[in-house]
User: Fold this.
Amino acid sequence: MKYEKLFEKGKIGKLTIKNRIVMPPMGTGFAAASGEASEEITRYYEERAKGGVGLIITEVCRVDELSGVAQPCQLRATDMDVIPSFTRMVDRVHAYGTKMFMQLHHPGNEAFPITLHGNPVIGPSPVMCKTVGVVPKEMTTAEVEAMVKCFIKGAVIAKTAGFDGVEVHAAHGYLVNQFMSPHTNHRTDKYGGDFFNRMRFATEIIVGIRFACGADFPISVRMDGTDFWDDGMDEKECQHIARYLESIGVASLNISSGSYESGWSIIEPYTFKEGWKKHLAKGIKESVHIPVIAVNTVKHPAFAEQLLEEGVSDFVGIGRGNLCDPEFANKAKRGDDARIRKCIGCLNCFKQSGVGRAIECAVNPLLGRETYRGDDKLIKDGNQQTVAVIGAGPAGLQAAIVLAKRGYKPVVFEKSDSIGGSMKLASQPPCKEMIGEFIDTLKLEAEDLGVEIRLNTPGTVEAAKAIGAVGAIVAAGGTKICPPVPGIEKAVSYEQVLTKEVEFTGKKIAVIGGGLTGLETAEYLAAKGNEVTVIEMAPAVGTAMYRSVTAAVVGNIEKDGGHIMTSHMFKGVKDGAVVVNSLASGYDLDVPADACVIAMGVHPDETIADAFEAAFDRVAVVGDTANPGNIADATSSGYAKAFVF
Assistant:
């Protein structure tokens, strides 16, 4: 076995966990609207149990129907009617030797009013969460006492349904955390004031659960290592809280950090390295004698093993890693790290959740779709018929992999000398190396399935006919957008920059386009010592990206001396400047620039699709060739079209 510490047994209270891999809570949107465990969420957890996870902690389960709703489709532990669906879910997880905790949750002042059906946002004190923008109604003493009973009832429901334990969510600025922190707790009754009064709400919940469920029913508490509030809880205070929680019978601590107002610290974009906050967990582990679980932006099994070797934690929380690849644990146990689809940190998952949708994954198009697109649903009727796949980008490779699983013989035509398509360019900006690893993993998957990839070979209709193809999947990418403005011939493209065909150092550069392509090109140029100005016609940049990703990239550009100009239309290039029009004033102005880089993305290439559709009866157009988008759009369309080809 490659990772001895990662796969040794561990204990939480008297409960034995088969390994040290914990799948921490992540809101999914897969639950039934009723709050019951749907087939979608059951299958989602079952696949991760089958994939070898030792302990799964569910997504946030609400304990209150009036003020405690965090998502439109969210598990609930408010009434006994949910027990049958929960029991089925737990049974299917237990079949693989995986243990399961229910996480009990209330959002407090971080509840969005749209989810509460007219009920007020509540909190310990009228302190507004800046992300939500609503001053909460201060809970009365009687309301706090009633809420304690809601948490206890939730734990009883969990135990009755067969869960192995519960976790009280006391991190991330949610209600329990709000009572603990002086930032949000300004009360003068028994639930506010000194340390013990601020801890009273959590204490009554934990003691009440122990009384109702028994001392041997393990309680984990998810808590912050710091909350990143100046008047909140620093590392020393959190260590004090950890020792106190141990003293009242908590069986384990699950360490995270931050609140909605520091969302980057909870769901880190790709700019954060593995283990950037490991000191938080280690400080708490050194303060207590109970097991510590911790999330640390883990992307590689080797790093998880390293955390255990360093004594950072007793169990390693691997969240998005298990979204990206449900077989993360099994592949790690086999030492097959290269075949793990690893998180690229794009946060497409949370972008979807943020607009009220179920989560989706850029590198795993099956996430949440296991019930109707899983491998067990593939119709294996290919009969070794040849299919031409035009383009070896993410859409084409994903399509080829699915076709091969269905028994087809896909032949991938790639006009360049390497696979990856637009991902090759996307892997060049700072901190984007995980995209390069994803390309390598796709290549291995294709090779394992016998997919033939022909490099330096344009995918023409004639080439497809020459191999006897019965049809084609067209994933040839899009055509670069290049506006016909005066002086455009003086500009260079983002492709020329990211492939290093053209290199700049110490220059003033105007980057035209404030989308994903433009921002990452600007970030790349700024990191090389250039003074970059991003010009965008819309009132904001990076609107297609998750907000913390946009903030991180823009922050890097500005840190390196760059500028963002929104609401300005690009009108032309001349010596020493680009011409833009201010949409606010209507006036033209010159922006000094030694060079102009066009990074406005791509539009669909209909000509190649038309040619194949005229030549073959069975044609599917995917990726940027059909509808320009990101990696998630590409893999999703490639999988979906190959699934029904």
